[in-house]
Amino acid sequence: MLNWIWLGLILSSVVYAAFMGRMSLVTQCLVDGSKDAVSLVIGLVGGMVFMLGIMRVAFDGGLRVWIARALAPLLLRMFPDVPPDHPAMGAMVMNMASNMMGLGNAATPFGLKAMSELAKLNKHSQTASDAMVLFLAINTSAITLIPPSGTIFVRAAAGSTRADAIYVPTLVATMCSTFAAVAVFYLLRRLPRFRPEAARGEPIAEGDARAPAADESPRAPDPQNGEPDEHEIARVPTEAWRLALIGVVLAALAVALGREVTALAADAGFGGAALTVVQAWAFPMLIVGALLIGVGGRVAIYDSMIDGAKEGLEVAVRIVPYLVAIIAAVKMLRESGLLDLVISAVSPITTRIGVPGEVLPMALLRPLSGSGSFAVMSETLSAYGPDSFIGFLTSTLQGSTETTFYVLAIYYGAARITRGRHTLAACLTGDLAGFIGAVAACHLFFG
Questions:
Q1: Does 387 lie in the same domain as 257?
Q2: 3-class SS at 13?
Q3: What is the DSSP string of 232-249?
Q4: What percent of the chain has a predicted confidence (pLDDT) above 90?
Q5: Residue 279 domain boundaries
Q6: Do 225 and 91 contact (CB within 8 A), yes or no?
Q7: What is the rounded average pLDDT of the residues 242-255?
Q8: Is residue 53 located within the same domain as residue 176?
Q9: Which is it for the CA torsion 78, 80, 84, 86, positive or negative?
Q10: Is the alpha carbon torsion for 346, 352, 358, 364 positive or negative?
Q11: How many domains is the chain built from?
């Protein structure tokens, strides 16, 4: 679908520009768009390298395992058809923990492993089971506890003075997205239209890989299958000096936080002071927290940071072609005058519900392509300013949902599923709820 969207952007821009006498502007923006994309990546590399390095420290220090242990009891209740000792449960736990940490590259292998293992438990040939539908509903709308570092550093590169202010609105939007997607799963799963085929009498072939083995017995978790290892969880006790260092740092920050809240409350009241402190402190405290987790986990902080930073450099280089293609196409659409025509047509309708028409391209492209929406966000920040309401809302939308159609395609492809039942309905509802949550949160925080 993205192929046709990109082709449509180029062709419609050239045709409209030809009728409006703006061909020279379209030609120039091809050159400018390519330059802007490369300049954007140069400004983005430093931030991505640093933040992925910091997250790797927390990762090695045990944060992902802690999140996995906290999620496990909840998932046992949400996925009653998946045995607690099955590899699918371990892979799902690690996938969700990785997504919550914002480690999408680490989450995908666990997600594919989870779908492959869920297929072995599936009694419905080529039809998604309840566990598959719910897992993907959560996966495409995952609550992200870690700030979207890529978006934040794009905002900084665009000249924002409040680059990290989108953290809390993004968290609110992802919570709305996840709750809505899960709610729709439970509402629709028992409707006759979405009942699995096995409920209508489809047999399971003898020896089918999807049928659970009769003699399968409980076994120890296998880390290679995505299951947390008890030896990994039971780390060597932290030395006293490390605990003392963590305590001193946290105590000092607590004192400083109290002083700032007290000073701000005198002018803006406690509510206003709390809002200001959350926006200003969230990102620095995240960095400190990640480093202290590394200290407590006996991690070689610098070496671990460098390992994660190398991944950040690879990611930044990999997105260059996508940025060049999309930014050039969107600039052509804008310079031709066609984008302004579309925005002027829809703005009277969308502004009544607090949504500027300028953010609609971002909202429509986000479920289709992560790299494409990232490029559209970058171009929008350049056109309207990163600290405008349009800039804040566009940045929040980037982190509020996943690339739904892409995720469904690769995950169901891995499990050889052709009938997804109500998966798409649940995931798109999550996307819509994330959009509404992003709009509401941005109006709350940015007016």
A1: no
A2: helix
A3: HHSPPPPPHHHHHHHHHH
A4: 11
A5: 240-296
A6: yes
A7: 91
A8: yes
A9: negative
A10: negative
A11: 2
